[in-house]
Amino acid sequence: MPILFILMFSIFLTSSGEDIDYSKEMINFIGEIREGSKEDKIIIVQNTTELFYKGKKADKKLLSKIDGISRESLFYGEEAYNKKNTSEHVQQTLKELIGIRKQGKKILLIEYTDRRWDKQKIRKYVKKYDFIGESFDAYELNSIYKPLSGFNNKNIESLEDAENFLCLLNPEKFKSAESFIKTLENLDYDLLIIDADHMGKALSRSQVERLKKKKNGSRRLVVAYFSIGEAENYRRYWKKQWNKTLPEWIEKENPNWRGNYIVKYWDPDWKKISRDYQKKIDSAGFDGYFLDTVDTYRYFQEKE
Fold it and tell me: Which of 63, 80, 172, 216 shows its CA 20 to 30 Å from the CA of 242?
């Protein structure tokens, strides 16, 4: 085969994306977010464990980019609310989470059950494996629940200090940002995971600062939701013309979440949007980022 043809074929592969290492590109993206933040910023990654493994061992270098991993439906709710997951579903992921915890990274469990005996089992699991976990009232993550481990009076200076958390990503039940802030101010959770906006309007630095104190007066952490594998058409970065013609770096709408669009997260245009959004989170004074849709890399892997 002529050398010129081989070179042109190689260029074609690169431009068509067929030679992209999707997991590596996602790891690189997370690394860029880490590099673009202050050292004390917390990074929690949602629903991804195998990304931080090389072979059978958790990779210290890869894990150095993050502070913790959140996992939905490890024990309950994968197929239906209140339904216990199969051992096949639990086994491998639990093993990976244990390995990551042994490397000093915090593990957060988001479980979907409201049955008392299920909650008791979750308490036993998190105590046994040194995780923290909560039982949620709905998949929408739009309500306040009682923490499984109870409250405490500790000052929370790092993610490792946290013994409970509130993940409230959809605040549509609150008519105003002020009512949302006041409600959260009167709670004693160690860690708040919330959206940086309320109904399309950014939370102010003073509002976020108010949230950093528990009702009992002690310090807590406030982390902002940050979708890096999907674009959302209700964000301020979304352009009206995209409703008619999607830019090349948007793959398609997520069929399970209306208004959320799978992106080619390695694309420079999307990375610029993400950098700008990260600066917005930083300017509001959040303690870190809750990185969601990281598992988008699996979509592209499976597509091939």
Answer: 172
